[in-house]
């Protein structure tokens, strides 16, 4: 099945990727990486602060169980709006539907449960389908703000200048998108950092419900509210080299990784997320074996 997926992806989908997936997505695409995403963010902050911007609000969003929450109906509708061959879209629809899973504990079997959402883990098409799912999530004010995605890690940067501050509107925009697409934001793992340069202006008011931090760990790199300070990142690297806990006291890195542990990194150009096949060798059913 994986071989057939690769054939379908390379022959029918890969040539459409550049036109399909927006440039704000840096994962699962040939020629882009987490480093490119970080450089884009940091470079934009410095450019803003060198101009007439007082501060930059940086909001790291976390989607609850992002990969497991993808609605099959919604992703199929989005596929229908692309230029992908309709026969291939029908095949993908069949590929997603009629999946079941069960659990076996000490030889006792549960009933099979139908699965009507989630991109299948360990498949070639999974990363592409997820990228397409969040492809239409954009910033409300693209003339001023930027959104950078790496798989399900999403970071909005919004400049604050004079009386202009659109960060709250961007949070509302993201919440509306998640509601429309039957997903949800995990506000407990969504953080804000205010990046400041030489401005002496007071910081903008915090956004209700979102914790403000003086640093964020984005895509494995610790970024501080002073864009020219790298002390925490250097200390983390030294601690890691010494075998200490990289993330400090509480171990909470603020990286925005989704709960299913898929980080979206290190994938080949065919979008294979590197996961294994289903336990019983089939893609339409899954059995999980647990022991006590």
UniProtKB/TrEMBL annotation:
Residues 240-292 are annotated as: Disordered. PROSITE patterns: RT_POL. CDD domains: RT_nLTR_like. Residues 244-282 have a biased composition (Acidic residues). InterPro entries: DNA/RNA_pol_sf (IPR043502), RT_dom (IPR000477). It comes from the Eukaryota. Pfam families: RVT_1. This is Uncharacterized protein. It comes from Paramuricea clavata. The lineage of its organism: Eukaryota, Metazoa, Cnidaria, Anthozoa, Octocorallia.
């Amino acid at each position: 099945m994986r071989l057939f997926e690769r054939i379908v992806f390379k022959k029918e989908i890969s040539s459409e990727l550049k036109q399909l997936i927006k440039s704000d997505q840096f994962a699962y695409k040939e020629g882009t990486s987490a480093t490119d995403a970080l450089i884009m963010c940091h470079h934009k902050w410095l450019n803003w602060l060198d101009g007439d911007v007082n501060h930059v609000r940086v909001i790291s969003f976390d989607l609850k169980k992002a990969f497991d929450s993808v609605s099959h109906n919604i992703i199929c509708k989005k596929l229908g709006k692309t230029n992908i061959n309709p026969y291939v879209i029908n095949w993908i629809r069949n590929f997603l539907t009629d999946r079941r899973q069960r659990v076996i504990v000490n030889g006792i079997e549960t009933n099979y449960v139908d699965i009507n959402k989630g991109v299948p883990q360990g498949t070639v098409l999974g990363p592409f389908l997820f990228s397409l799912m969040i492809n239409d999530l954009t910033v409300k004010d693209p003339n001023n703000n930027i959104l950078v995605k790496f798989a399900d890690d999403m970071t909005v940067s919004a400049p604050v200048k004079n009386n202009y501050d659109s960060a709250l509107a961007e949070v509302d925009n993201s919440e509306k998108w998640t509601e429309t697409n039957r997903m949800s934001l995990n506000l407990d793992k969504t953080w804000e950092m205010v990046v400041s340069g030489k401005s002496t202006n007071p910081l903008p008011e915090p956004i209700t419900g979102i914790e403000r931090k003086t640093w964020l760990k984005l895509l494995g790199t610790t970024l501080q509210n002073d864009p020219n300070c790298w002390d925490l990142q250097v200390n983390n690297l030294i601690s890691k080299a010494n075998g200490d806990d990289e993330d400090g006291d509480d171990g909470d890195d603020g990286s925005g990784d989704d709960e299913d542990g898929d980080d979206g990194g290190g994938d080949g150009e065919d979008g294979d997320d590197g996961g294994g096949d289903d336990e019983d060798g089939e893609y339409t059913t899954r059995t999980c074996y647990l022991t006590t």
